[in-house]
Specification:
Blueprint (H helix, E strand, L loop, with lengths): L1 E12 L2 E12 L3 E5 L6 H9 L6 E6 L2 E2 L5 H8 L2 E4 L11 H11 L4 H14 L15 H13 L5 E5 L7 H16 L3 E5 L3 H7 L2 E6 L2 E7 H8 L4 H9 L13
Parallel strand pairs: 3-8, 3-9, 6-7, 7-8
Antiparallel strand pairs: 1-2, 1-4, 4-5, 9-10
Helix pairs in contact: 3-4, 8-9
């Protein structure tokens, strides 16, 4: 069974297609990198997978369940097994970190004592104990990302959708998160990750897809993609694939 499958997925905003005929097959137990330049359609894709945005056309399946407004029970079953780290850390600013984690745990049906125990363990694991009684509104961007990651973990999901999870996180926090994610994949979880830090994707991901102007332009293992494009690094491969032109300071006559 696939962790994620999309078939000819399309999302239009007015006349423009933000995602256009996107077909993906993400195996279970895979660390999957979903790449593209700014505005390529990555965040829109994740929003559709989570049900925040409705596709214009096409089909989606998460953990074997159809994501379809006409089958809400199937979508609910799937989303109860998914952890989300959004690009915009949409947290409840007027709660403390532990309070927010307990709230999320209860949303997923955890008994109150279990939600409390896990929230405290996660706060300790992500080194947020020193935040004390600070409200999330007072957290730095990196701290907010850590709380979002903790919230994605509290119900022990099988599939993680992560939109730029390392953005704003310091080197220590990023190392902690990377090692945790690798352990999760070894345990059978699936990670669907977007990131502009290509070195991170190159190190972590088993398979990589590149989207450009809403369309899938490359997909496969890193070795397969390197061979097909004759590129030595993921950065070279990415630039060649999305067709960006080389620019230098000489293009700006006033510099």
């Amino acid at each position: 069974m696939l962790a994620i499958e999309t078939r000819q997925l399309r999302k239009c905003y007015g006349p423009k297609a933000a995602v256009d005929s996107l077909s993906l097959s993400v195996p279970q137990g895979c660390f999957y990198g979903f790449l593209g330049p700014n505005g390529a359609g990555k965040t829109t894709t994740i929003k559709m997978l989570m049900g925040v945005a409705q596709p214009t056309s096409g089909e989606m399946f998460l953990l074997g369940e159809p994501i379809d407004p006409n089958q809400p029970e199937a979508g609910l079953r799937a989303r109860q097994r998914i952890g989300l780290v959004p690009d915009e850390t949409l947290l409840f600013d007027n709660l403390t970190g532990p309070e927010y984690l307990q709230f999320v745990g209860r949303l997923y049906g955890l008994p109150r004592p279990v939600a409390l125990e896990r929230s405290l363990e996660l706060i300790n694991f992500f080194e947020l104990t020193n935040a004390g009684r600070k409200l999330i509104s007072e957290y730095s961007k990196g701290m907010r990302k850590r709380v979002a990651m903790a919230a994605a973990l509290i119900h022990r999901p099988q599939l993680f959708l992560m939109d730029e999870p390392f953005e704003g996180v310091d080197a220590v926090g990023a190392r902690l998160m990377k090692e945790l994610l690798l352990d999760l994949v070894k345990g059978g979880a699936t990670i669907f990750l977007t990131s502009h830090v290509l070195e991170v994707v190159e190190r972590l991901c088993d398979r990589i897809a590149i989207i450009h102007e809403g369309r899938l332009v490359a997909e496969g293992t890193l070795d397969e993609l390197r061979q097909s494009s004759d590129s030595s690094t993921l950065e070279d491969l990415f630039v060649k694939t999305v067709g960006e032109q080389n620019r230098t300071a000489a293009d700006l006559s006033w510099l």
